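Duplicate of earlier report; PP2A regulatory subunit TAP46 input re-posted below.
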Amino acid sequence: MDDLPLPSIFEQARKIHNAATESGLDQDAVRKGCDALQKCEDMIGKLGLFSANETKEDISTGNLKYILVPFYLAELTEKIVQDDRIPLLRASQAKLKEFISFCEAMELVPQEELQTSTEGNSLADRRARKIARFKRQKAAESKLLEIKERKERRGRSSKASALSAPIEAGEEDVLDDDGEEEREAWLTTITLAICKAFDLLEMLKKEEEMLSSIKEKEEKDGDKNFSREILDDRMKRAEAWHRDGVVRARYTKPAPPITCATFAQDVLEGRANVSQAHEHKHQPMIFGPASLVNGPLTSERERLAAQVFQPGFRLPTMSIEEAGLREMEMMNKWQESTAKYIEEANSAWHKDNTRKPGPSVEDEDDDDDAAQEKARAWDDWKDDNPRGAGNKKLTPCG
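Output:
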């Protein structure tokens, strides 16, 4: 393949691509097609067939087909089968982006595609973009089919005319028509490839996201399995310790019960023995220099130095067991005081003392008579002094 020219290598790669797209090939043929297309890319770069200053009108008809090399390579790369598929998807996406960027620079991407891609990314925009792309794809396919049929009809008519009479004037026009038809066919093929490239790029992005999420989940599950193995190992060691303790308990004196959860955890993990004394005291941890030697604070200087390196949060002043005992003591006191209050409320002397003294019947009668006399005196005064009687001198006509 190294000795073949660029058109021959491209034609072999294009046949492999068409066969893989239509029916499917084995992996060796697909990899062979990828190697041929990569060889085409290298030769195109060395020959300098395309320039950034050119447009589609500046490119010759014979070189238009080489624009499809990145697209063909992306599709064949996506068809390779291997365990880790994410690198293949990324490589295929890179080639598709390269193909779309080059077509955009050559003014081959339709204006509708550029407008819809910059308008928005909502659900309605994506749906309208897909519908327009599907219509362009169908139009390109029908146009390619029409060019193919027209070319076949021209070939049949040229054979028939060659058999009947020799070719006379006008042969150059037929050749010019063939050149224009070939250029139109390649431009239509590029338009169809652009539509497929956008759809394939979206599909590969979704597949990469899905595979990446699955890979992350598998890694997390692997960590869970690792932690489960550690827990199982700890459980086995605890069971073995309990079995050995049962055997030793037959010949040893029973130890006093453990009432501190911290000390029990130390015993289970082997940091302490059951026979060790434990006073259920929780001393605050000292972070100063004295803690480095684990010695007492002998001087004022050491005490001040120990207070420098303190944590930024409050340390506990008692253990959980001490807090529980204190709460139990408070609850017992509250229950005792409540029972005492209930007993006092139910006693007879408390009821007698709390009864409020009310007025007698005679006092109520005296209050009623005094109120009636006061009301009668007020009525008499109002009769003797009618309303406005003292203001006669203030009237203008008085």
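The mean pLDDT is 76.

Merging into the original ticket.
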